[in-house]
Amino acid sequence: MKTDLYNLQGEKTGTIELPEKIFNIKINEDVIYQVVNVQITNSRQNLAHTKNRSDVKGGGKKPWRQKGTGRARHGSIRSPLWRGGGITFGPRNEEDFSKKINKKIKQKALFMVLTSKVRDKELIVVDNLMISEPKTKLISKILSNIFNKKQDSILITIPQKNENIAIASRNINNVKTILADSLNVLDLLSFRYLLLDKESIKVIEKTYGNI
């Protein structure tokens, strides 16, 4: 299976072979949905937290004696009945909402999304994605060359850490840089185009191909 290879001027320079087992598999939308659902759930931050009667201050002494005052009996000002008392059935940040999913299912879903990028012509492979300085105008010029100045959301995937590209691209709207060994289904689906350095293909195959 082959796809076009481009240089940084947006010119087609040839073709490159894509691994069939990664970029040409049968797509099952249910599997992709399962993985996206798990990934979104696991990224959830459980911040809401209320104090129950064991957490609030005070309440060590009975407010008044049990009988003879004409008032209702109370044992502690920590009671949920009191202003400033504990909250009953409120949210607690000890709750664990994380979900688990099989590694092979995650791998299959990733390959399915990569396959859909190829079939929808949303995968662009470039030869040696490099810039000399961490300047936004340099990466912006490359993207304009490749996408004919009609930039949509783009996920740039590089084989190894590159501060110049990471810094230069972070100021561009709808553009994100990610390492090839950190690819995930949610990021791939969040961006229309996948801009892939050709060396990233080897990293993807090495990282995910043997799960």
Explained architecture:
It is a single chain. Helix content is 33%, strand content 14%. With 211 residues, the chain is an alpha/beta fold. It has 2 domains: 2-44 and 101-208, Ribosomal Protein L4, Chain: A (3-Layer(aba) Sandwich); 48-96, no CATH class. Strands 2-1-3-6-4-5 form a 6-stranded mixed beta sheet. The longest helix is centred in the middle third of the chain and has 17 residues, at 103-119. The radius of gyration is 27 Å and the shape is elongated.
User: What is the C-alpha radius of gyration, as a whole number of Å?
Assistant: 27 Å
CATH topology of the largest domain: Ribosomal Protein L4, Chain: A
- Number of H/I helices: 7
Helix-strand pattern: EEHHHEHEHEHEH
Report the mean per-residue pLDDT as an integer: 92
> What percent of residues adopt helix (DSSP H or I)?
25-40%
Identify the CATH class of the largest domain.
Answer: Alpha Beta
Number of strands: 6
pLDDT < 50 stretches: none
Distance between the termini: 22 Å
> How does the overall form come out from the CA principal axes?
elongated
Placed side by side, the strands forming the largest sheet appear as: 2-1-3-6-4-5
CATH architecture of the largest domain: 3-Layer(aba) Sandwich
Q: Mind describing the biggest β-sheet?
A: 6 strands, mixed
Q: How many domain regions?
A: 2
- Mind telling me the CATH superfamily name of the largest domain? Ribosomal protein L4/L1
Strand content: 5-15%
Structural class by sheet pairing and helices: alpha/beta
